[in-house]
Specification:
17 helices, 8-stranded mixed beta sheet, alpha/beta, 5-stranded parallel beta sheet, FAD/NAD(P)-binding domain, binds ligand NA7
Length: 546
C-alpha cells in the first residue's frame, strides 16, 4: 500500500478538561507516544499545530524535500504489521510519500481521534498544589493532566524572522518549513535562496531548472555526499520486509541508530586501505561515510583531515571552476563535524547559465528591501521570490517558544536562556512529570536516525509513567544531582570531539545569544539506550518520587 488517500482530520476531537496525559505534537514521536500511553489505559490527548499528522514531514513540503535516511530504516519497529503493510517506492523517498506513510500509521493505529489539530499550545504551567500540568492553547481551550510529554520536534522552530525589512519585500517570501500546500509557481521568476544547509541543497537542486534566474546566497561552504536513490520494486520490498526481526534488534543498538556501524579502527588500516574503504562507502551514496566509516573522524584531527581532503577532492573534480571551489568547498572545519547532506546534482547547478552564486561571507546580507536583498556593500539583488532555507532554533526552540512554567513558576525559557540542561534529554529538574523527546542532550537532538531514537525515548518515558502509576505515586522528577551528573557526562564526551569546534546549529551557534553546548549526546545511540535502561532497572535512582 503506497498511495492511500487518507482521511482529513477533524480539527477538534477532544473537549477541554482533565486528562491523564497531554502529548504535544503529532509527528514521529507524538503519534507513537499517544499510542503507547493509550495502550497503558491512560486517558490521553494530543495537541498539534498542523492540520494533520506528520510533524517534520507535515511542515517541510518545500520542493525537493526527501529522506536522507534509508526508508526501510526510518521506521517504526513496534508493529510488524505496520512495517510490512507499507511499501516504499525508493531508497530515499520524497516528502509527499513520507507524509502519506505517517498518515497510514495514524490510520492503521486509529490515532487521529486522540488529537486536536490546528491547535497550538501557548503555555504549560505546573500547578504544585494539585501536581498537575495546565495547558492553554491558541483556541482558548484549557487542558490539565498529570503528565506532560513534549514531542515538538528538534527542528520545528524556524528561523524565519532574521533580516530587517522582511515585511517590506513586495514579492513572495517563504521559509522552507512553511512552504504552502498549494505550492509556489517559480516558473519564469527571479528567485533567491538564502542558505545551503541540508534544506537549501535539496531546494536548490530541485528548482534551478524552473526559475528564470536563481541567486544563491552562500555563506558557509558545506560538505556533501552524492545520493544514490534506486527505485524499489517487489524484490527490494521482499528483501527489507524479510529483515524486520533482524533490523528491529540491531538498529537501536548501533552508534547512530542506522543499520550500519563503523568499519574498524583508523590506525589499523593503512592509508591505501582507508582510501579503498572511503571510495567504497562514498559510492554507496548514503550517510554512511559520515555516520559509519571511521569513528575517529569525530575526534582525531589526522583522521578528520584525511577524510575531509578526500571529500574536498571529490567536490573539486565536479566543481572545476576555482572561484566555485573557493566558495563551496569547506576549508576551515572538518567533514562531519556538523550535518552532512546528501545531494543529487547540487554542485552542477552552479554551472547553469541561469544560476549565480553570491558570496555573503565577507559582504553579509544587511536587510530586505521592497525589491529584494540588500548586502552590506549596498548592492541590491532584485527578486520575485525569496526562499529562506535558514534553519531552526534546534533542540530547545520548540519548547522555549511555549511558556513552560515548572515548580515555583520557574520558566524553561529563562532556565535554558542561561544554560541548556536536561537529564538524558528526557527530564528537566524543576519540571515534575514533564517528559521531553527530541530535546537537548540526547542523541535524538541530532546525531541519530530520528525514528530509532524517538521510539526508544517514548518507550523509556512510557515505562517510567507506568512505574509511577503502578507504584501509586503522583510525581517523578529528576534530582538536581542526577541532572548535573548527566550534563557533566554529556559535556565530557562532547568536549573530546571536534564537533564542538565547528559553528552550526548542533552547537546552538546559529541563534544569537543561545548558550553554547553540543545539543546532541554524542556517546552513541546504543550506549545511550543502555544508560537509559540502567536508570529503569535501578528503579529510577536519581529521580525523586512522591
Ligand atoms: P541549517 O543546516 O541550519 O542551514 C541554514 C543555512 O542558512 C546555512 O547555510 C546558513 O549559513 C544559512 N544562513 C542562516 N542565516 C544566514 C544569514 N543571515 N545569511 C546567510 N546565510 C544564512 O538548516 P537546514 O534547514 O538546511 O537544515 C536543518 C536540518 O534539517 C538539517 O541539518 C537536517 O538534519 C534536516 P551558515 O552555515 O550559518 O553560515
Amino acid at each position: 500500500m503506497t498511495a492511500t488517500a487518507y482521511a482529513s482530520p477533524s480539527v477538534v476531537n477532544k473537549p477541554s478538561g482533565s486528562y491523564d496525559a497531554i502529548v504535544i505534537g503529532a509527528g514521529v514521536a507524538g503519534l507513537y507516544q499517544v499510542h503507547r500511553l493509550r495502550d497503558l489505559g491512560l486517558n490521553v490527548i494530543g495537541l498539534e499545530t498542523g492540520s494533520g499528522v506528520g510533524g517534520t514531514w507535515y511542515w517541510n513540503r518545500y520542493p525537493g524535500c526527501r529522506f536522507d535516511s534509508e526508508s526501510y530504516i526510518y521506521q517504526y519497529w513496534f508493529s510488524q504489521d505496520v512495517y510490512e503493510s507499507w511499501t516504499w517506492s525508493e531508497r530515499f523517498p520524497a516528502q509527499p510519500e513520507i507524509e502519506r506513510w505517517m498518515n497510514f500509521v495514524a490510520d492503521r493505529c486509529d490515532l487521529r481521534k486522540e488529537f486536536n489539530f490546528n491547535t497550538t499550545v501557548k503555555s504549560a504551567v505546573y500547578d504544585e498544589t494539585k501536581s498537575r500540568w495546565v495547558v492553554t492553547t491558541d483556541r482558548g481551550s484549557t487542558f490539565d493532566a498529570k503528565y506532560l510529554v513534549t514531542c515538538c520536534g528538534m527542528l520545528s522552530a524556524p528561523l524565519s524572522e532574521i533580516f530587517p525589512g522582511q515585511s517590506s519585500f513586495k514579492g513572495k517570501l517563504v521559509h522552507t518549513s512553511r512552504w504552502p500546500k498549494e505550492s509556489i509557481d517559480l516558473n519564469g521568476k527571479r528567485v533567491g535562496v538564502i542558505g545551503i544547509g541540508a534544506t537549501g541543497i535539496q531546494v536548490i537542486q530541485t528548482i534551478a531548472s524552473q526559475c528564470k534566474h536563481l541567486k544563491i546566497f552562500v555563506r558557509t561552504p558545506q560538505y556533501i555526499i552524492p545520493m544514490k536513490n534506486p527505485k524499489y520494486g517487489p524484490a527490494e520490498a521482499a528483501w527489507y520486509k524479510g529483515r524486520f526481526d533482524e533490523l528491529k534488534e540491531t538498529v537501536p543498538n548501533t552508534f547512530t541508530g542506522f543499520e550500519y556501524d563503523f568499519v574498524g579502527a583508523w590506525e589499523d588500516h593503512s592509508p591505501e586501505q582507508r582510501r579503498e574503504v572511503m571510495e567504497r562507502i562514498w559510492n554507496e551514496g548514503s550517510l554512511r561515510l559520515w555516520l559509519a566509516s571511521y569513528g575517529e573522524i569525530f575526534s582525531d584531527e589526522k583522521a578528520s583531515d584525511e577524510i575531509s581532503d578526500f571529500v574536498r577532492e571529490k567536490m573539486q573534480e565536479r566543481l572545476k571552476d576555482p572561484r566555485l571551489c573557493d566558495l563551496l568547498i569547506p576549508k576551515d572545519y572538518g567533514f562531519g563535524t556538523h550535518r552532512v547532506p546528501l545531494e543529487s546534482g547540487y554542485l552542477e547547478v552552479y554551472h547553469r547559465a541561469n544560476v549565480e552564486a553570491i558570496s555573503v561571507r565577507d559582504n553579509p546580507i544587511q536587510c530586505m528591501t521592497p525589491e529584494g536583498i540588500q548586502l552590506a556593500n549596498g548592492d541590491v539583488h532584485e527578486l520575485d521570490v525569496i526562499i529562506m532555507a535558514t534553519g531552526f532554533d534546534a533542540g530547545s526552540g520548540a519548547l522555549t517558544r511555549i511558556d513552560i512554567r515548572g515548580r515555583g513558576g520557574r520558566s524553561l525559557k529563562e532556565d535554558w536562556g542561561r544554560d541548556i540542561r536536561t537529564a538524558l534529554g528526557m527530564q528537566v529538574h524543576g519540571y515534575p512529570n514533564m517528559f521531553t523527546t527530541g530535546a537537548p542532550l540526547a542523541p535524538s537532538a541530532a546525531l541519530c536516525n530520528m525514528t530509532t531514537c524517538l521510539q526508544q525515548q517514548v518507550d523509556w518515558i512510557t515505562n517510567c509513567i507506568d512505574h509511577v502509576e503502578q507504584s501509586g505515586m503522583n510525581v517523578i522528577e529528576v534530582t538536581k544531582e542526577k541532572e548535573d551528573e548527566w550534563v557533566a557526562h554529556h559535556d565530557e564526551i562532547a568536549n573530546g570531539t571536534l564537533v564542538v569546534k565547528t559553528n552550526s546549529w548542533y552547537m546552538g551557534s546559529n541563534v544569537d545569544g543561545k548558550p553554547r553546548r553540543l545539543l546532541s549526546y554524542i556517546g552513541g545511540v546504543g550506549p545511550y539506550k543502555k544508560k537509559c535502561d540502567e536508570v529503569t532497572e535501578s528503579g529510577y535512582a536519581g529521580f525523586a518520587k512522591r
